[in-house]
Amino acid sequence: MGVAVMKLRNPPVNSLSLECLTEFTISLEKLENDKSIRGVILTSECPGIFSAGLDLLEMYGRNPAHYAEYWKNVQELWLRLYTSNMILVSAINGASPAGGCLLALCCDYRVMADNPKYTIGLNESLLGIVAPFWFKDMYVNTIGHREAERALQLGTLFSPAEALKVGVVDEVVPEDQVHSKARSVMTKWLAIPDHSRQLTKNMMRKATADNLIKQREADIQNFTSFISKDSIQKSLHMYLEKLKQKKG
Ligand SMILES: CCCCCCCCCC/C=C/CC(=O)SCCNC(=O)CCNC(=O)[C@H](O)C(C)(C)COP(=O)(O)OP(=O)(O)OC[C@H]1O[C@@H](n2cnc3c(N)ncnc32)[C@H](O)[C@@H]1OP(=O)(O)O
Fold it and tell me: In degrees to the nearest 10, what's the CA dihedral of 228, 234, 238, 239?
């Protein structure tokens, strides 16, 4: 039926390393250029994890040129996903913090597994970093200004039930039904003529995407100088240590 399934596979936690981001963007571009493909189901092959978000090791202890290159690729993937002409449905089969949530938010419809261990949200403030304006814009577009304001300040990671209530996801289903539900949602969306759906999607999303496009360079510079600060590097170090200690 012209539907591709993209499975994130970067064990152990599907963090979005530079290599992973680049491959993702290229795959998406290929699908976009393949006229037989009308929809993509985005899911994960890592058990219990949709995506741990941006790779913290790409943002810690590197040089400014690396940060700039990394951020350019984060922007690129986001622009491709958010403005895709294809129907994107995410089958969220695991934890989805920060950049993981961002991937899901780019989709046209989000189905999440009903497992309270899985959480989703933009938790940047908990790491001592700040979600950039275009993450924020997309959050506001999805859940409204008040909910986004609160969730961004608190770095809230929502359980599936909470995410459904606030509108971060569109549907919560038993874990073994995430993929079948994503497929049935896709079937419904495929019934809409592409041209009218695409024009409507463009009308809804263009201003948000253009907001980044017109200041991409400045955004890269902001990111680079922000992430290079000693205080921010210290926060990231502490967060990485906390992740390590969780094990021991
Ligand atoms: C003025 C304004 C200017 C604007 C400037 C912009 C500022 C920057 C904006 C950047 C935005 C960032 C968005 C992000 O995506 S940051 C990443 C946020 N991600 C997280 O907080 C998730 C952290 N991870 C977890 O919570 C858990 O790992 C998990 C995903 C729930 C999985 O738990 P688990 O128990 O199954 O696995 P765990 O043992 O924790 O982890 C296994 C190993 O993986 C490492 N790891 C986990 N997450 C990441 C990650 N995101 N990047 C890199 N590595 C990660 C973890 O450390 C373990 O490693 P090791 O085995 O100990 O070596």
Answer: -30
Residues near ligand 1 with C-beta < 6 Å? Answer: 12-13, 15, 49, 52-57, 95, 97-99, 123-124, 127, 129-130, 132, 222-223, 226-227, 243-244, 246-247
Residue 226 lies in a domain: no
- pLDDT tens sequence for the chain (248 residues): 699 999 999 999 999 999 999 999 999 999 999 999 999 999 999 999 999 999 999 999 999 999 999 999 999 999 999 999 999 999 999 999 999 999 999 999 999 999 999 999 999 999 999 999 999 999 999 999 999 999 999 999 999 999 999 999 999 999 999 999 999 999 999 999 999 999 999 999 999 999 999 999 999 999 999 999 999 999 999 999 999 998 76
User: Is 223 inside a domain boundary?
Assistant: no
Residue 210 lies in a domain: no
Active site residues: 54, 99, 123-124
Of all protein residues, the one whose alpha carbon is nearest to atom 31 of ligand 1 is: 95
Q: What CATH number corresponds to the domain at position 108?
A: 3.90.226.10
Domain count, the chain: 1
**Residues 6+ positions from 110 with CB-CB distance below 8 Å:** 89, 90, 92, 104, 168, 169, 170, 171
Q: What distance in angstroms lies between residue 247's CA and the mean position of ligand 1's atoms?
A: 14
2 CA to middle of ligand 1, Å? 34
Q: Is 42:107 a contact under the CB 8 Å cutoff?
A: yes
Phi-psi region for residue 196, left (φ > 0), alpha (ψ -120 to 50) or beta? alpha
